[in-house]
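Task card 7
Instruction: Convert sequence to structure tokens.
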Amino acid sequence: MTFFHIALIAATFLCSIVAGFLFAFAVVVMPGIRNLDDGEFIGAFRAIDGVIQGNQPLFMFVWVGSVLLLVTAALAGVWTLAGVSRLLLILAALIYILGVQAPTFRINIPLNNQLQRIDPGTMSDTARRRARDDFEQRWNQWNAFRTVCASVVSGLLVVLLLRV
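Output:
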């Protein structure tokens, strides 16, 4: 087994965990807190996000590792693969960076940070409603997009593993 194969297997594994994490947020976490009142919703999301923003080590290993390993596999794959296999790997890396990581850092994290900066306990009902409205729909839409992209990447990487 070559360095490329090890990097590809590890990248597939970690990218698939990220896809599952995003999927769990889309179908369990956000629907689970949807029926909370505005203050409870903000508080619950802040608590969940606080674990992530606290640099939870296993989460950070998976999230950052998925990017590093996929980029490593893609760079090694450019020299190792040809034709459709090379195209699948490059496509997977581009989708992951542009469809998962870029929206995370440009949209979802800034939205998370907006909620982290407020204290729902000191806000009026109207201000809590506005804070939630400014956050929830946009966050969920982009998380759905990230989930689809991450799932496509996982699928492409599995197909690629079966080809090499």
